[in-house]
Amino acid sequence: MSTRHADAHTTLWPHLGLTVIDGDRTELDLAGLFGRTAPVVLEIGFGMGDATAAMAAADPDRDFLGVEVHTPGIGNLLALVGERGLTNVRVAHGDAMELVHRIPAEALDAVHVFFPDPWPKARHHKRRLIRPGNVALLRERLRPGGVLHCATDWPHYAEAMAETLDADPGLRRLPATPHARPETKFERRGAEAGRPIADLRYERS
Fold first, then answer.
1. Is 121 helix (H, G, I), strand (E, B) or coil?
2. Average pLDDT for residues 174-195, to the nearest whole number?
3. What is the DSSP string of 25-87?
4. Does the annotation place 24 within a ligand binding site?
5. Does the pLDDT at position 179 exceed 70?
6. Residue 149: Cβ within 10 Å count
7. Average pLDDT over residues 164-178
8. Region (Disordered): which ranges (predicted)?
């Protein structure tokens, strides 16, 4: 991490950070984590955190729980939180689905999965985040009417995502909404490489 990231991590992690421990199934107290009762958005794989910080700043009535394995990204998001004085962001380090197991059923207002690793090789498809078992678990954590929003710049993964999400009996596809989220660094890279951006939004029925 850069000095800026490391300083933010040292200062803010003790108050805003959560370490995900594999196999821990202790139910997570979201109201206790944020210090209030408010709708919660789970942000899976936030990268460098720019989009997460932007959404949290624009939507102070909701709380944002971001989970990431990339430590420089965690440091950057913490730095942004400190610089912008955000109080509605918490940051988790570790495996996202391990964290999801700890979240109570129907506790989330939304789940964001923006530009996850596409694992383009066929033998690696089993590692993709958006697959039936994971989707069912994410859907169970959404409140009725809650939204699962996925985005990718890999057309084959977009097709696989849509097929998996359409097949889930508890999800209903929503119309695409332009500008429903800030642009991410990965999105810019994909657009610059000429890859189309696919946004898939589904509501828990």
1. coil
2. 78
3. -PPP-HHHHHTS---EEEEE--TTSHHHHHHHHH-TTSEEEEEES-HHHHHHHHHHHHHHT--
4. no
5. no
6. 19
7. 92
8. 169-205
171-180, Cβ contacts within 8 angstroms, sequence gap of 24 or more: 171/135, 171/139, 171/202, 171/203, 171/204, 171/205, 172/202, 172/203, 172/204, 172/205, 173/200, 173/201, 173/202, 174/147, 174/201, 174/202, 174/203, 175/201, 176/201, 177/201, 180/149
| 186 is an annotated ligand-binding site residue | yes
Q: Which two tokens stand for residue 187?
A: 């999105």
For residue 65, list its beta bridge partners: 42, 90
Q: Where are the domains of the chain?
A: 3-204
The answer, yes or no, to whether residue 118 has pLDDT greater than 90, is no
117 is catalytic: yes
Q: How confident is the model at residue 113 (pLDDT cuts 50, 70, 90)?
A: very high
Please state the CATH superfamily assignment of the domain spanning residues 3-204 in this structure.
Vaccinia Virus protein VP39 (3.40.50.150)
Q: Is 126 annotated as a binding residue?
A: no
Q: Which of 7, 109, 117, 168 is catalytic?
A: 117
Is 121 annotated as ligand-binding?
A: yes
Distance CA 63, CA 55 (A): 10
Q: Nearest-CA neighbor of 97 among 52, 132, 144?
A: 132
